[in-house]
Amino acid sequence: MLVTFKCHASPDVTMLENLAQYLLGIIGKRLGPRGVITHEELDTAISKLEAAIATDKKERAEHEGHFHEGEEGHDHHELPPGLAQRAFPFLDMLRLAKQEDNDVLWGV
Question: Biased-composition ranges for Basic and acidic residues (predicted)?
Answer without folding.
Answer: 57-79
